Amino acid sequence: MSKEQVKNLVELKMNALEYCAKRAAKGGKVASYNCPECQAELVAGLPDDEKERWTSATICYECGALHSTVKTVHGVTAYSAKDTIGS
Ligand SMILES: [Zn+2]
Questions:
Q1: Burial level of 76, CB count in 10 A (0-12/13-18/19+)?
Q2: CB crowding 2-29: b at 16 or more within 10 Å, else e
Q3: How many angstroms is it from 17 CA to the middle of ligand 1?
Q4: Would you kindly state where each structural domain of the chain is located, as residue ranges?
Q5: CA–centroid distance, residue 4 to ligand 1 (Å)
Q6: How far is the CA of 29 from the centre of ligand 1 (A)?
């Protein structure tokens, strides 16, 4: 990774942690899960509504790998991009 990429990841991580801390402070749901690429523990905000299901492409703030996540009130499921791209 270049210095620029590392700097971006540091910012991404700070933003994610700050967002989750604010969310948790307001009584929102926050969960941790493991990056499917580097196994680092990542934090993410969860939906508050049982009916909601958030799917998104997420960049790991530890290794920079793209992965997809599905977030529900029950937690986060992460999929390696290698498993979903081209399938
Ligand atoms: Zn990672």
A1: buried
A2: eeeeeeebeebbeebeeebeebeeeeeb
A3: 15
A4: 3-84
A5: 17
A6: 22
Q: Which residues pair with 33 in a beta bridge?
A: 42
Q: How far is the CA of 66 from the centre of ligand 1 (A)?
A: 8
* Tens-place pLDDT, residues 58-84: 999 999 999 999 999 999 999 998 775
What separation in Å is there between the alpha carbon of 37 and the centre of ligand 1?
Answer: 5
Structure pTM?
Answer: 0.86
Q: What is the pLDDT of residues 4-52, one digit of tens each?
A: 999 999 999 999 999 999 999 999 999 999 999 999 999 999 999 999 9
Tokens 């680092």 correspond to 40
**Sequence letter at residue 36:** P
How far, in Å, is the centroid of ligand 1 from the Cα of 63? 4
Q: Which helix or strand (DSSP H or E) is residue 9 part of?
A: helix 3-25
